Amino acid sequence: MNIFEHAMKFEREGVVLYRRLAQKTRDSGFKNIFRWLAEQEERHQEIIGKMKAGRPVTGRGKVNFKRIKHIFKKMKVHVEQMEARPAAVAAYKSALVVEKRSMVFYETRAGAAKNPEEREILEMLAGEEAKHIIVLENLIEFMAEPLAWAEDAEFVKLDKGE
């Protein structure tokens, strides 16, 4: 398997995982976050496809956390009604493993890339995966201890990603 096939496999796994998590949750905030993550992974697939085909990659902007911050702020309002959900935390931790694996893969490949444009794209993908990790860490903290998360939530971790 070459770099593109590995990358596409990781991104496909992410899309499937996030779509499944979005279907399983009843909370609209979580649903929207998982849909956003799936969209991000689909965008990565497009970028990888263009790289593989030797076409120029456009739209390499930063991940915008405004939508995610808005969702978390809405969830914070009704946090008193939330309960810790260990099963959800376990599922979100599995998603975290997928994101970390993807980030390390892109970082490693970027370090070995001879083409400067390819290196830049791989570094950008690694950076985006790092931002997905921040989102998932917030979800895990939120699900593990909703009230404690809400008391501390000033979205500092999300701010680091911007």
Outline the structure in words:
The protein is mostly helical and 162 residues long. The chain has helices at 3-24, 28-53, 66-77, 86-112, 116-144, 146-152, 156-160. The model has no long low-confidence stretch (mean pLDDT 83).
- The value of Rg in angstroms is 16 Å
Tally of discrete structural domains: 1
CATH class: Mainly Alpha
Average predicted confidence as pLDDT: 83
CATH homologous superfamily?
A: Ferritin, core subunit, four-helix bundle
| Number of discrete helical segments | 7
Distance between the termini: 33 Å
Kindly identify the CATH topology: Ferritin
Largest sheet: none
Give the structural class.
Answer: mainly alpha
State the helicity in percent bands: over 70%
Strand proportion: under 5%
The H-and-E topology, N to C, reads as HHHHHHH
